[in-house]
Amino acid sequence: MPALMKHVRFSSINALYSPVPSTPYVFTTSTSTSSSRSSHSEDSKPSRRRRHVSKLTTHSRSKSLDIPAPITRIHYLLAFSPYQLPPIPYHLSTHPSVTKSFISADVLSEPATDPPVSSLIITCPHLQWEFTVTPSSRKASCVSVIDVLYALYRGLRIAVHPVEYKALPSPEAVANVNEAYYSRCNSILEAQGRQEEQSKGIKRVDFLIGRTRFLGLSKKSRRRDDRLGVPQATAYYLFTRSPTTRPSETQIHEAIHYIAVVEFWTLGSNSPNFLASAH
């Protein structure tokens, strides 16, 4: 595999806007007098001032209220980039708990997006299903990094319905799914566990036909509710690829170095920990 992995970092984006006054600007005009008597009489009487409300100011204010929605950024551990190794060396066919051996629990519990969201939807170009992600804990108010991995794992572990299996587009696709199923089951070393897994049949993860390496998420356009006209849950594309059989020592070194740098940024900085902007 060619070493294309460049150390590319995505900077965060700040959307700035000027404060909007609560009321339109008011311009006042008054007629001045030169005589001292007129000046004295004006002191004793209320001044006659004409109030002019600027239509231009009111129009500008109404326009400035059309503030765009804040940009949602995906956590750097989940962000897809075609130019570098993904920070999480995770395979979707394995339990997400394996990630805790190289990523701290505190980092995995961080919000999956900035600003945080209470739910998000993930789709994959190779699959026909959507995966809805919600907080795994009732006490949590937003989706975390580990919530995303668990939702993908659980969603891909669901058994495929016979109708879905028959809907595969070609005999070649059927053969590829079957091969992925047997390959996944045969990867279990224990004979009893292997037989139990085979008895559960083909699962959604087999429809990835071996492309189980998690590459990250990329932002989709916002979906809207036709009746209410408001955005629904934030949606992302899931990117995967076939796992490499044996990465080179250079690739392993780059991956370990990148994870170490990310950990340092997370634990040693007070700035937001979302270094990759969503597409």
Task: Give me the secondary-structure topology.
Blueprint (H helix, E strand, L loop, with lengths): L25 E4 L6 H9 L5 E4 L1 H10 L8 E2 L30 H4 L4 E2 L5 E4 L6 E4 L11 H12 L5 H5 L4 H16 L4 H9 L13 E7 L14 E8 L7 H20 L11
Parallel strand pairs: 5-8
Antiparallel strand pairs: 1-2, 3-4, 5-6, 7-8
Helix pairs in contact: 6-7
SSE sequence, one letter per element: EHEHEHEEEHHHHEEH
Question: What is the helix content?
Answer: 25-40%
- Please identify the oligomeric state: single chain
Relative strand content: 5-15%
Span between termini: 26 Å
Number of helices: 8
Overview of the structural elements:
The two termini are 26 Å apart. The protein is globular. 30% of the residues lie in helices and 13% in strands. The strands form 3 sheets. Strands 6-5-8-7 form a 4-stranded mixed β-sheet, covered by helices on one side. It has a two-stranded antiparallel sheet with strand order 1-2. A hairpin with a 6-residue loop joins strand 5 and strand 6. Among the domains are: 26-64, no CATH class; 73-158 and 203-268, no CATH class. It is an alpha+beta fold and 279 residues long. It comes from Lentinula edodes (Shiitake mushroom). Residues 28-61 are annotated as: Disordered. Residues 90-221 form the DUF6699 domain. This is DUF6699 domain-containing protein.
